[in-house]
Design a protein that fits this description.
By secondary structure, this protein is mainly β. Helices cover 11% and strands 30% of the residues. β3 (68-73) and β4 (76-83) form a beta hairpin. 7% of the residues are buried.
Length: 151
């Protein structure tokens, strides 16, 4: 007995993409890929807001503080730097190289509510934390509600 199968173009595309990706991960193609060390990289960033400040956290593992530059000018925050490639193994012994090396730069436009002269940055455990305090007038204010007796 024949069964009718409904064609799902999205599912077909996903399967094709998986097969295509798997094809290029086979050992025969390993040497044909560009090493991650010569391709551009962009560190992952989380940005969140608290009552008193904006906080930006960037993942910058295996970097030294001297290789990271944080600048604030014209309501723009720029993170830049370089993660240096330190070879502690022979390249022919590498089975997989996925980490990125080299220079990076990320730029963020800041709102007018940031106190630019009070920005602080700290680098610890591979994470750069930039704290951007809010101007006093930008902080939320509690407004007391009075209850009238209707007269």
């Amino acid at each position: 007995m024949n069964t009718i199968t409904r064609w799902d173009p999205v599912n077909t595309l996903v399967k094709f993409q998986d097969e295509f990706s798997r094809f290029f991960e086979e050992p025969v193609f390993r040497g044909l890929r560009l090493p991650a060390s010569i391709t551009a990289w962009t560190p992952a960033v989380d940005i969140f807001e608290t009552e008193h400040e904006l906080v930006l956290k960037a993942e910058l593992p295996d970097m030294q503080e001297k290789d990271i530059d944080v600048r604030v000018e014209n309501n723009t925050l720029t993170l830049s730097g370089e993660r240096k490639y330190e070879k502690d193994f022979k390249e022919e012994n590498a089975l997989r190289m996925e980490r990125y090396y080299g220079t990076f730069s990320r730029t963020f436009t800041l709102p007018n509510t940031v106190k630019l002269d009070a920005v602080k940055a700290e680098y610890r455990n591979g994470v750069l934390t930039v704290k951007l305090p809010k101007l006093e007038e930008a902080k939320p204010k509690q407004i007391k509600i009075t209850v009238g007796n209707g007269k």
